[in-house]
Design brief:
There is one protein chain. The chain is mostly helical. It has a single domain, classed as Winged helix-like DNA-binding domain superfamily/Winged helix DNA-binding domain (Arc Repressor Mutant, subunit A, Orthogonal Bundle), CATH 1.10.10.10. The chain is 62% helix and 8% strand. It has 6 helices and 3 strands. The chain has a 3-stranded antiparallel sheet. One of its GO terms (molecular function) is DNA-binding transcription factor activity. This is DNA-binding MarR family transcriptional regulator.
Length: 149
């Protein structure tokens, strides 16, 4: 099946446009988070005692990218690193109260923006879109990590 534009272009352009909307909305509400940092905070809220390596694997991102984002979140005091109870060589990432509060506020903004971006999209269209995305993901031959959104 052919489209007018390459699939990678359509997906990439759409994601970039959505990302710009999130950045603008976060900025408007004085939220000092990038979309990537928001996603990391969300993952940390869903998974207690997760390591940077685990996070890198779950988000399918390079370890150095995750490290930079985590360092920024540490500086903002949204996250702390604590020694693992069973393996002292490992450091678990834990949300601080400040990080949890930032995530909670950011989630409410993100939910509102998501609703705005889906205006005019019917429930059936959204379900079809999700089905198409799932098929594309399966066709890549890679297993997407289970999203706990």
């Amino acid at each position: 099946m052919n489209t007018q534009k390459p699939l990678t272009y359509l997906l990439g352009q759409t994601m970039q446009m959505v990302k710009l909307c999130f950045i603008a909305e976060f900025k408007k509400h004085d939220i000092e988070l990038s979309l990537e940092q928001f996603i990391i905070l969300h993952q940390l809220s869903q998974n207690e005692n997760i390591t940077q390596q685990d996070l890198s694997n779950e988000l399918q991102k390079d370890k150095s990218i995750i490290l930079r984002q985590i360092n920024t979140l540490l500086e903002k005091r949204y996250v702390v690193r604590l020694p693992d109870k069973e393996d002292k060589r490992k450091k678990n990432l834990i949300l601080t109260q400040k990080g949890y509060d930032a995530l909670t506020f950011s989630k409410s903004i993100a939910q509102t923006l998501s609703a705005e971006l889906l205006q005019g999209v019917s429930t059936e269209e959204l379900k079809n879109f999700e089905n198409v995305i799932e098929k594309i993901q399966r066709n890549t031959g890679h297993e997407p990590e289970q999203c706990k959104c």
